Amino acid sequence: MNEVTWIDENEDTVTGKYLTFNLGQEVYGLEISVVTEIVGMQSITEVPDLPVYMKGVINLRGKIVPVIDAGIKFGKPPIIYHDRTCIIIMEIENALIGLIVDKVNEVIDIPEENVVPPPDGKTGFSSQFVKGIGMVGNDMKLLIDSFKIFSRDVEQSILGSGMEE
């Protein structure tokens, strides 16, 4: 699977829009404004001494892009990649990052009034990556904080000085 899907980045049309994807049975949403494209799985070059969720880097039309396995990052057991597994390419702070997901679903509208904050830590809910829960009819989508998906120390080790504050 090597198809490429381009995402329209027109700011007026992306507010409240989320790209939904699956990790196992859970459905997550990622703000479409950070998504640049979706690519099929491809050869990943491993980089030594990185956390297990950092799968390595890919060459995306001449650009070196670090790739994170979202499932492992979110504490799920590793899976065998299949024909629906793909990489969501995001631009975070002027750097490209790939996020491996089980499958991409669709782009949906979730108005701000339908987004509620996640339960606080006192209830036993603790996920530093979930910034809200989007209510879509009777379904819930866990909305990801794209800026917290990977830590600054890993950014620096794999991306170098381009990501410095």
CATH superfamily: CheA-289, Domain 4
- CATH fold-type name: OB fold (Dihydrolipoamide Acetyltransferase, E2P)
- Rounded to the nearest angstrom, the radius of gyration is 16 Å
Total helical elements: 3
Tell me, rounded to a whole number, the average pLDDT. Answer: 82
Fraction of residues in helix: under 10%
Q: CATH top level?
A: Mainly Beta
**Main pleated-sheet profile:** 6 strands, mixed
Q: What is the second-level CATH architecture?
A: Beta Barrel
Number of domains: 1
Shape: globular
| Biggest β-sheet: strands ordered side by side in the sheet | 1-4-7-8-6-5
Low-confidence stretches: 161-165
Report how far the terminal alpha carbons are from each other: 36 Å
Order of helices and strands: EHEEEEEHEEEEEEH
Number of strands: 12
Strand content: 35-45%
Overview of this protein structure:
- The structure is a single chain.
- The protein has 165 residues and is mainly beta.
- It has one domain (4-159): CheA-289, Domain 4 (OB fold (Dihydrolipoamide Acetyltransferase, E2P)), CATH 2.40.50.
- Helices cover 10% and strands 44% of the residues.
- The protein has 3 helices and 12 strands.
- The protein has helices at 11-14, 70-73, 152-159; strands at residues 4-6, 17-23, 26-31, 35-40, 54-60, 63-69, 86-92, 95-101, 103-109, 115-116, 130-136, 139-144.
- The strands form 2 sheets. The protein has a 6-stranded mixed β-sheet. The chain has a 6-stranded mixed β-sheet with strand order 9-2-3-12-11-10, with no helix packed on it.
- A hairpin with a 2-residue loop joins strand 7 (86-92) and strand 8 (95-101).
- The model is unreliable at 161-165 (pLDDT under 50).
